[in-house]
Amino acid sequence: MKLTSPWTGILSFLIVLFTMPLGHAAMILMEKLLGHDLLYPAAFGLGVLGIVMLLIGIISRKETSATFLGLFGGLFVWTGWIEFGYVYFANRFGVQPLIENGQVVTKPEYLIMPSSYGFWAIVMLFYIFSTRSGCNFFNWIQRKIHYGQPVETLQPIIRNAAMTTFMELNVLLWTCYMILLFSYDNEFLGDRHPVTMLIAFGSLAWSIYLFIRLLKIKKLAYAIRYAIPTVIIFWTFVEILGRWDILTEIWVEPAHYWLEMTMMTIAFLVLLGVLLFKHRK
């Protein structure tokens, strides 16, 4: 029996959603369980594994397999090379965390991440001015800035499901991190600023709209790719709730909330298995 479109969308959303807290928890456990001599080689190896998964996905002829390889390859590269890369250089050069009321509110690695805004802008310029993509947001901007010139005149990059998923995940994570970090910074806005509140509830509303559209998708590979922006935009709202101390971020202390995190891991594996099994049938 094949999954109907609502269930394909719901399960795709939940699978991508579970990768967010589990990825955070895995990073924290690596920091605590691996010593200084092992942590960064392990993180580099994690990134290499992500690249290998991406390359396998690129040559795969099955769109669903390629999409999942792009998803997990992107997660491994983001965690191993990008997040732990910032951790390494923040620790190496003695960057101090941001402390408020005796508590760490922003870790050192996230304090230096906004410095990558120039690279982010370059990537955005490429996607907006130099290529055609399947992103409705980019397409809308292109229609507005090309002054009547049809968007079809922009040539798409050679389409590959693994690379598309990989880039979509990393660019969206990067974008939302930048939005959050600039919003939290008191030099720009601050976490209680009205604009930050607008970002929070705007992200919630946007993710609900995307989720409703996701429920109509029948194709599994497309549903997974569509679930990525849906989840990451929703997770922006979750992150701000945690910053406001409205939500307990159990994934920040996985050793303390080991039972909840274990149940979440089991649920993730079960949902992934059910989705792939039903899709195969």
UniProtKB/TrEMBL annotation:
Keywords (alphabetical) are: Membrane, Transmembrane, Transmembrane helix
The residues that cross the membrane are: 41-59, 66-89, 117-141, 161-182, 194-212, 224-244, 256-277
Keyword Transmembrane included in the entry's annotation: yes
Question: Transmembrane helix as a keyword?
Answer: yes
**What is the name of the protein in this document?**
Uncharacterized protein
Organism, scientific name: Parabacteroides faecis
